[in-house]
Structures are given as C-alpha cells and as structure tokens.
UniProtKB/TrEMBL annotation:
<dbReference type="InterPro" id="IPR004567">
    <property type="entry name" value="Type_II_PanK"/>
</dbReference>
<dbReference type="InterPro" id="IPR035073">
    <property type="entry name" value="At2g17340_3_helix_bundle"/>
</dbReference>
<dbReference type="InterPro" id="IPR016949">
    <property type="entry name" value="At2g17340"/>
</dbReference>
<keyword id="KW-0533">Nickel</keyword>
<dbReference type="Pfam" id="PF01937">
    <property type="entry name" value="ARMT1-like_dom"/>
</dbReference>
<dbReference type="GO" id="GO:0015937">
    <property type="term" value="P:coenzyme A biosynthetic process"/>
</dbReference>
<dbReference type="GO" id="GO:0005829">
    <property type="term" value="C:cytosol"/>
</dbReference>
<feature type="domain" description="Damage-control phosphatase ARMT1-like metal-binding">
    <location>
        <begin position="52"/>
        <end position="359"/>
    </location>
</feature>
<dbReference type="InterPro" id="IPR002791">
    <property type="entry name" value="ARMT1-like_metal-bd"/>
</dbReference>
<keyword id="KW-0464">Manganese</keyword>
<protein>
    <submittedName>
        <fullName>Pantothenate kinase 4</fullName>
    </submittedName>
</protein>
<dbReference type="GO" id="GO:0016301">
    <property type="term" value="F:kinase activity"/>
</dbReference>
<dbReference type="GO" id="GO:0005634">
    <property type="term" value="C:nucleus"/>
</dbReference>
<keyword id="KW-0808">Transferase</keyword>
<dbReference type="GO" id="GO:0016787">
    <property type="term" value="F:hydrolase activity"/>
</dbReference>
<dbReference type="InterPro" id="IPR036075">
    <property type="entry name" value="ARMT-1-like_metal-bd_sf"/>
</dbReference>
<dbReference type="GO" id="GO:0046872">
    <property type="term" value="F:metal ion binding"/>
</dbReference>
Length: 368
C-alpha cells in the first residue's frame, strides 16, 4: 500500500492464529505441491489476468493525465504479461506463489510505476453521473414497498444488480464497452432464488429484531453499485436507527469507488438540511479502508477504520473481490454478510454455480 501509516488487522476478525484466517477464498496450492511448479489453479488464474491485459491497456492509452500514454500503456501490457508468464514458469518469482491478491497488486504496481494512477476515472465519472440521476427513482420504488421483509429483499437485490458494473471482469468489460449495462434490466434479470449461497431469509429474520447498532460496509464499484445498490440500503439502515460506516478504497483500483469520491457523491445527494430523501444522515460515516486493490486482506486495514469498526454489530463485505474471491469464509466476532455476483467463470467453477449467480452468505457471530 502507498500509505504513510502501518496497516493493522480488523479488530472484529478472529485472531488469525485461532481462525487460520486466509484472505483468499480459493486454495491455489497445498503444502504437498511442488513449490517450483505452478499448480493448475494458479495457471488458471494467471490466464484469467492475462485475458484482461488488453482492456487495461486500452483504458491506459486513453488516460489524459499521462504523457505518452499510448507508449506507456504498451509498456504496461508487455511488462505485466512478462510477469504473469514468469509466474507460470516459477511461481515463487515476483513475490509468489501467486493468488488473487498478489496478481492484483503486481498489476497496480506496474501501472503506478509508469505513472498511471486512475485509468478508469473517465468511465467512473460517467457511471456516477448516470447513477446519480436514477437515485431518487430507485429510493422511491423501495420506499413504496410497505412490507418490510419484501423491502429488504428488494434492497439486497439492488445491491446485487448494481454489483454487475465491474470492469475487472474481461467478459463484463467487453459487454459494457458494446452496450453499457442497465440497472433496471439487471434487477429484473437477476438469477432467481435460491442462489448458490442464499442466507437471505435468515438475514431478514434478524433484521426484524433491529439488533444492529453499528454496521460497517466494505464497498466495491463506482456507479450503480454504490449509488443505486449500497446507498439506498445504507439509508434504510439509518432510517431504522443504525449507525452506518462505509469503508471505501484509499487509492483507485479498476472502477472501485474511493472514499474521497464517495464523500463527493454523498454531498451531491444530500439536501440543504443534510437529509438523504428525508432521512437524517448524521449517523453515516465515510472512511478510508486503507486498501488499494479490488480485493482486500482484513489483516491489513487502516488504523482509522480499525478504531471506528471495533464495536460494530454487523460487517458487510460487498462485491466479488471483497466478499467472494476474498473473505467468503472469514470468521468475524460479530454478524457478517458476504454479498456479490459471480462474474468470473473460475469463481463459478469453484462454487459449483453458474456465471452471474448470486452469493448472500450471512453468519451470526454465535454460529462460529
């Protein structure tokens, strides 16, 4: 991380020694594997990252903030491809053995070394603008659902629909470039329940007890994801009396929202009285997670977030990177939700699901 402070563990994470906490969900290798030979899973994931190099190069080429962007984008593609090929030949090269955290970090390091800080800035701004124009309609639709359990389910489906805006997926990046992605259409076309992991009914039962005083939400993408998915849900929590902490990236990575960008978005949505469509926002806090990747290791977060989150009753890890590819089986000392859409065939294969299936994994603290 390019931060001035040391990272610390999330206090709500069970002591790593006790829980054998490992951020990455999918086991890339086992102790019995030859350390000098890439495993089949490692090769599969290296190939996944290789597949996305061209889309990253195209984004970098059009970065107006970088001099000679085209030449530097070409250099990025060459250098990162060489690193990935090196890892296939020797998994211990470049700080390996590889997993999704290392593969993401190496990509960001190469981009930043060449002067690229936020190659998705333009598309993030465009999608934020579109989503802001739709926000009131989405909230009014949810507010019009009188039955609370139905309203909560609709809000959760909104989070899943918004989460499809993910330019880190080669398939979705291509689809987005051709057609864009409609939030309302995605809501209507979500995979029907039961999902591959579906604890939504248990979550709705706990919601009715109004037992969460403080909720921490680790957010994912810009645009529809955070504005039309997370913020209506956070507003509902605030309306129910919960304090809400939204933790967003410190530095840009793919099209993930940063905490600075999210503060600006909230300022645009609030009215002159500080209300979000009639709901008091004083219980909402936006904070820096300390993260600079589209995945997250909960053993390495910002001290600020660690302090703020220490007494939370519920932690939500949203998005495929934070809640599925990492931390799906993370054990927390409080209630937890891991929610996201399955957007990589490799993840679908591991979960035994279909592409674009949904994950809603809810654990009460007492279940561990």
């Amino acid at each position: 991380m390019e931060n001035d402070y040391p990272s610390v563990p999330l206090p709500l994470l069970y002591t790593p020694i006790e829980s054998n906490y490992r951020a990455c969900t999918i086991p890339y290798r086992f102790p019995s594997d030859n350390p000098r030979m890439a495993t089949l899973v490692e090769i599969e994931w290296i190939d996944l990252f290789l597949k996305s190099v061209s889309s990253f190069r195209q984004r970098a080429e059009s970065d107006p903030t970088v001099t000679d962007a085209s030449a530097k984008a070409k250099k990025f593609a060459q250098r990162y491809t060489e690193i990935l090929e090196d890892l296939k030949k020797d998994p211990e090269s470049h700080g390996g053995p590889p997993d999704c955290i290392l593969l993401c970090r190496l990509r960001e390091q190469v981009l930043r070394e060449l002067g690229f800080r936020d190659i998705f800035k333009k598309v993030k701004d465009e999608e934020n603008h579109k989503a802001l124009s739709l926000f009131q309609g989405v909230v009014k639709l949810n507010d019009g659902i009188e039955d609370e359990t139905d309203r909560i389910e609709n809000l959760i489906k909104g989070i899943l629909a918004g989460n499809i805006f993910d330019l880190g997926s080669a398939e979705l990046a291509e689809a987005f470039a051709k057609n864009g992605i409609s939030f309302q259409t995605t809501c209507q076309n979500l995979m029907p329940r039961p999902w591959v992991i579906d604890d939504l009914d248990a979550f709705k039962g706990k919601w009715s007890k109004k037992s969460w005083n403080k909720v921490v939400i680790f957010v994912d993408n810009s645009g529809a994801d955070v504005i039309l998915g997370i913020l209506p849900f956070a507003r509902e929590l605030l309306r129910c009396g919960s304090q809400v902490v939204i933790a967003a990236n410190d530095l840009p990575s793919i099209n993930d929202i940063t905490y600075r960008e999210l503060i600006e978005i909230i300022a645009k949505l609030k009215d002159e009285n500080g209300l979000l469509m009639g709901v008091d926002m004083s219980g909402l806090l936006i904070t820096n997670s300390g993260n600079d990747l589209p995945v997250i290791d909960l053993a390495n977060i910002s001290p600020e977030l660690a302090y703020i989150a220490s007494d939370a009753d519920l932690v939500i890890l949203e998005g495929m990177g934070r809640g599925i590819e990492t931390n799906l089986y993370a054990k927390l000392k409080c209630d937890s939700v891991k929610i996201g859409m399955v957007k990589h065939p490799e993840v679908a294969k591991y979960l035994g699901s279909k592409l674009y299936d949904c994950v809603f994994k809810y654990n009460e603290a007492s279940n561990y």
